[in-house]
Every structure is written in structure tokens, then in C-alpha cells.
Design a protein that fits this description.
Blueprint lengths: L1 H25 L1 E6 L2 E6 L12 H11 L8 H18 L23
Antiparallel strand pairs: 1-2
């Protein structure tokens, strides 16, 4: 079942991406509403005129103007960098070896060429 799901996703996601890119690049047009030019894109018939309601224009505005800032990522990145620096600075300088059997010295012979 999981393999079937992965095969469907392998086909569906590229088709979704290509259709989205085609929609935003091939069907760009503009409307003038109350002296304001609104440019957007969606599939429509070239020869026919179409219009949008006020609610549709508000939805187009909300979908086209998404603002993403890094304010949520910056504190996490800073904390990660400081943690790594603390580990590097405070790590012990001497090398300690683990002994598999305490009290038994088991030395290895040099490799033979």
C-alpha cells in the first residue's frame, strides 16, 4: 500500500507543479477596477471578457501577497550555533580510550603487509 502511495505521489506532484507554473505564467491578464490595475493569472478563454466580484479580487490579493519572514527561524538558528560553539569550546582536550574488558590489556599486533 505504501509503495502504491509513493508511486502515485511520484506522478501527481510533478503534474501539480507543472500545472501551477503553467497557470501563473501562461494566463496573465489585468483588470482595471476603480482606477487600480490588478494583474493576476488564471486559465480563461482568450476571446471572451470576464470579470471578478469584489470578494474574488480580495481572495486574489490574499493569495498573491503572502509574506514570509525569518523571524521564527532566526532564534532557532542562533540557539543551534551557540550550542555547537559551546560543545566545541568546552569539550575535553584529552583523549580517553574505552577498554572493552576492564583489567585486561589486549594489544593488537601490527598489520602484516
Amino acid at each position: 500500500m505504501k509503495q502504491l502511495y509513493l508511486n502515485i505521489m511520484k506522478c501527481f506532484l510533478p503534474v501539480l507543479f507543472v500545472s501551477y507554473m503553467a497557470g501563473i505564467t501562461l494566463f496573465t491578464h489585468s483588470h482595471v477596477v476603480n482606477g487600480v490595475t490588478i494583474v493576476h493569472s488564471h486559465p480563461f478563454k482568450k476571446g471572451s471578457q470576464h470579470s471578478h466580484t469584489t470578494v474574488e479580487f480580495q481572495l486574489i490579493h490574499l493569495l498573491n501577497h503572502v509574506l514570509v519572514t525569518d523571524s521564527g527561524i532566526t532564534p532557532l538558528f542562533t540557539a543551534a550555533v551557540l550550542t555547537i560553539l559551546c560543545i566545541i569550546i568546552t569539550r575535553p582536550r584529552e583523549v580517553r580510550y574505552k577498554v572493552s574488558c576492564p583489567g585486561i590489556i589486549s594489544l593488537r599486533a601490527p598489520p602484516v603487509v
